[in-house]
Amino acid sequence: MPHSLAHPPALEGRTLLDELNHRIRNELASVINLVSFKAIWADNIEAKEELSNVVDLLHQHVEVHNILTMPDRDALVDAGEQLRKLGLAMCRCKLDRMNIHLVLSVDTLPLESERCWRLVLAVYELVTNAVRHACFDGRDGQIKIKLMCTRSWVNCWVSDNGSGLGRIKPGRGLRIVSELAKGLGGRMSHTFGTTSTTFALDFPLTEREQHANRAVTARRPRTGRRLKAVPTPPSVSAVGQRVNDLAIQSKL
After folding, report:
1. What whole-number distance in Å separates Cα of residue 54 and Cα of residue 56?
2. What are residue 227's DSSP bridge partners?
3. Which of 92, 122, 131, 228 could be joined to 60 by an S-S link, Cβ 3.0–4.6 Å?
4. pLDDT per residue as tens digits for the range 56-88
5. Predicted confidence band at 246 (pLDDT cuts at 50, 70, 90)?
6. What are the CA-CA distances from residue 203 to residues 3, 60, 115, 211 (Å)?
7. DSSP state letters, 148-175
8. What does the DSSP 8-state code read for residue 192?
9. How many CB atoms lie within 10 A of CB 52?
10. In contact, 196 and 161? CB cutoff 8 Å
11. Residue range 148-173: mean pLDDT, rounded
12. For 199-235, how does the pLDDT look when each residue is reduced to its tens digit (9 = 90+)?
């Protein structure tokens, strides 16, 4: 009787994750094609415009999904650059539409690709959590992401200016973030205030990452990028897409 050879757990998990990502892309592409077809054949101008807006929104969600896809090679990746890309994509598909400003202040931070991916996933979950649960009480919403490296530790904060009341009980998203932090060898902590909420991720660098970051520090002692999302006036909006202007500055 022939024996079946089981895949190693890590390989099997990667295969299942690849299948899930592939399926999500295919489903999104199918929905985009369907809505695009409806937009082309719509007779009503307003309906055509609204359907075009839906297509644009779906494309922007595809962009976010692509950024969150697990890397397929073991390389060093600039976590600051990945968070900048994620911030831009989330502004286009979520934050701009809800009039929530995003401020991103990051250091150039080389991380191993899979560890960088885990960090980006965690930040995505925390930003999404703020969007869903923060109560801005009539104030302009603002979410801040800060990433920096202190010696051999990485410190990442996600904060918002919404009320923290009623957000004590962790849901599935925060449990995922906690597990991602543990996978990085670190921890997650939080601080709730009456008008603000802050989540902190702290984890150590690997030896490979420490070596790469020492080289970065030697070249540029203090580098970083800052991203700020500014609401676009309605007159600037194009049919089917509302994208805010994003100012990117280098932090000295």
Report:
1. 5
2. 104, 248
3. 92
4. 888 888 888 888 888 877 899 999 999 999 999
5. very low
6. 43, 30, 10, 16
7. EEETTEEEEEEEESSB-TT--S--HHHH
8. E
9. 19
10. yes
11. 79
12. 999 999 999 999 999 988 888 655 444 444 444 433 3
**Tokens 């992401």 sit on residue:** 145
Question: What is each CA distance from 225 to 11, 102, 106, 107, 178, in whole angstroms?
Answer: 36, 13, 6, 7, 26
The whole-number average pLDDT for the span 30-34 is 84
Residues 163 and 211 sit within 8 Å (Cβ to Cβ): no
Beta bridge partners of 106: 147, 225
Alpha carbon distance 93, 241 (integer Å) = 10
| Matching residue, tokens 């994750």 | 17
Structure tokens, 181: 């932090």
pLDDT higher at 59 or 117: 117
Q: Which position has the token pair 């979410």?
A: 143
> What is the C-alpha to C-alpha distance for residues 180 and 2, in angstroms, rounded to an integer?
39
User: For residue 14, what are the CA distances in angstroms to 8, 70, 71, 120, 125?
Assistant: 10, 9, 10, 18, 21
- Token pair 């994509």 is found at 89
Length of the chain: 252
Q: Is 194 exposed, middle or buried (0-12, 13-18, 19+ CB in 10 A)?
A: exposed
* 241 band by pLDDT with thresholds 50, 70 and 90: very low
| DSSP labels, 41-103 | H--SHHHHHHHHHHHHHHHHHHHHHHHTSPPSS--EEEHHHHHHHHHHHHIIIIIGGGTEEEE
Q: What is the mean pLDDT of the chain?
A: 79
What is the spatial distance between Cα 99 and Cα 229, in angstroms, rounded to a whole number? Answer: 9
